[in-house]
């Protein structure tokens, strides 16, 4: 049976990665697999081609753009591209995998538009900007300036939340995880 697509987007610090990692670790019955994206940056640490990413040159990336091979892509910095290959997603779906995306809001919206009812898009939202500030400060990984930049970006990203199928407000992690699990379970077990 062909897999389905689950898209997660959220401002930094909303708990999206925590929820996604919980789903992947604790719920193998959902048959979730990450989409393997393409990037023009070099591998870091122990990253392997075809596992974390497909690593290609900026020239190869541009060629794939001109051939319309991406569902979505972005040039994050000059010559530093990230994108989702149509062929890779189709390969995973045809193998029966439920493909999970952990992407920025614009990427999430693009994937949803491309796949329509075959994709479930979920926006994880912090209870408030003030709470988000507390979480980011609590991480103690960013400078005050970086936190302000992340908060400004979060305000911008929140303006796109109504373009997602559902919004989960993460004010209680356990409840947010339960809601997400229930949504995904229903979605992948509904026959169209």
Please give a structural write-up.
The chain is an alpha/beta fold. Helices cover 43% and strands 23% of the residues. It is built from 7 helices and 9 strands. A 5-stranded parallel β-sheet has the order 2-7-1-8-9, sandwiched between helices. α5 (129-139) packs antiparallel against α6. The longest helix is centred in the C-terminal third of the chain and has 16 residues, at 173-188. The mean pLDDT is 93.
Mean pLDDT: 93
Counting DSSP E segments of at least 2 residues, the number of strands comes to 9
Order of helices and strands: EHEEEHEEHEHEHHEH
**What would you call the structural class?**
alpha/beta
Radius of gyration over alpha carbons?
17 Å
Strand content: 15-25%
Helix coverage percent = 40-55%
Q: Can you summarize the main beta sheet?
A: 5 strands, parallel
**Distance between the first and last residues' Cα:** 12 Å
Oligomer: single chain
Q: Specify the overall morphology.
A: globular
* Spatial sequence of strands, sheet with the most strands: 2-7-1-8-9
Extract low-pLDDT stretches.
none
What's the number of helices? 7
């Amino acid at each position: 049976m062909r897999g389905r697509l689950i898209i997660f987007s959220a401002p930094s610090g909303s708990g999206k990665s925590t929820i996604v990692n919980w789903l992947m670790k604790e719920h193998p019955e959902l048959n979730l697999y990450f989409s393997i994206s393409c990037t023009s940056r070099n591998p870091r640490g122990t990253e392997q081609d075809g596992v974390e990413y497909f690593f290609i040159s900026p020239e190869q990336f541009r060629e794939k753009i001109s051939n319309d091979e991406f569902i979505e892509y972005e040039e994050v910095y000059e010559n530093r591209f990230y994108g989702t290959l149509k062929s890779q997603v189709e390969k995973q779906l045809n193998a029966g995998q439920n493909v999970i995306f952990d992407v920025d809001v614009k990427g999430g919206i693009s994937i949803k538009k491309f796949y329509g009812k075959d994709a479930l898009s979920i926006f994880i939202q912090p209870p408030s900007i003030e709470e988000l500030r507390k979480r980011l400060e609590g991480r103690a990984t960013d400078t005050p300036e970086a936190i302000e930049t992340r908060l400004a970006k979060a305000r911008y990203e929140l303006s796109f939340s109504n373009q997602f199928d559902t919004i989960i407000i993460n004010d209680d992690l356990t409840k947010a995880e339960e809601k997400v699990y229930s949504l995904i379970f229903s979605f992948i077990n509904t026959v169209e």
